[in-house]
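Reopening this ticket.

The earlier resolution said the output was attached, but the attachment link was broken on my side. Pasting everything inline this time so it's all in one place.
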Amino acid sequence: MRLIFAAVSTMVLAAACGPTEPPKPVALAPSATANADLQKLLIEAKAGDVIEIGEGRFDFTDPLSLDVDNVTIKGAGQDKTFISFKGQTAAGEGLLITSDGVTVTGFTMEDPKGDGIKSKGSDTISFKDLKVVWTGGPLATNGAYGVYPVESKNVLVDGVTVSGASDAGIYVGQSDNIIVRNSRAEYNVAGIEIENSTNADVHDNVATHNAGGILVFDLPNLPKKGGHSTRVFNNQIVENDTQNFAPPGNIVANVPTGTGVLLMANRNVHVFGNTFDKNNTTHVMIVSYTNPIKDDPEYNPLPRDFVIRDNTYGEGGTNPQGRLSPLAAALGGKLPAIVWDGVTTYGKKTEDVKIVVREKPEVGFINLGLGTTPVDLTKAKPSMDRQPDAEIAEPPAIVLPQDKPAAAKEGT
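Inline output:
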């Protein structure tokens, strides 16, 4: 009887105290074993886990990887948690993610040997409140990309800062359904790139002191092609003046220093509500892909159905770089705010290319009249006349499953 009474008393006491809460996970602290400890946590993670990295400086020599779905990697904040790969001995990115439903947030990564934070083949991936920086400044030996989602879907980049990437600070490649917002790209070759991707909103960012600010383009011979439906709006695209430091042979090595927005070989791109200032080659450059195209008959190198409207333009075009420099000399030393190469023919194909410019009459525009690719600048037939206006439907605002409360924002 006493045993029964004791058991009942224990049950009553437990019920009165309520259910026992699981212990809160302890944030990883800097230590000599932190690199291996963090990788162990990533390997053993289960869906729903939050892996916390505490305040302080972590010096890692080996890259990190995650292949478990629905995990959050969370630091104490950009200015509190620092992960340095300055002594990295193994090749590759600082952190590689190959799983779905992942959020990475709240830390600064320094000096990865390769790319900074990369996702590949991920669905519903979020990069928030992050910084990736190469502390030695702009160098060709830096990693190519800071934040790099590729072959991914439902991509959110929010509150990210990248500096020093030898290709692009924020680079979204071969992906679908994308938002890049509230971020800062500076002292990279390209600030923000949307490449071979579909359905992207790039808004409320700052792209400054890069060789080129924001790029939207398509390249041949990639698994995903036919990029389309991108909106670039409400960004500050100013003072992109860092000398191009891309390694030779890299496609962005051709981006002239001082380019605000570069649009190439893509479809249905709308650029509006941005502020341009002090981009010394030109504010908006629209071009075709001019390199030889091999073994890719489906690739279209022409820009099609572009709308440039309602932007604010400050000083610019005063010191053009690259292949456009001689042309600028012929135009009195300055390029207008918007430059289109005028290419409408490639191979044996000619298209009705629509480049719609709905800007005030005083906003300069030039069609170089190059006609066909590969281009020959000596055969340019420049014209300041804009194309007739045309109705080109603006893509709808992007809605992400991980971001529905904030995704109702329209860019109009």
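Reporter confirms the inline version is readable. The CA atoms of residues 344 and 352 lie 7 Å apart. The helical segments are 2-17, 34-44, 325-330.
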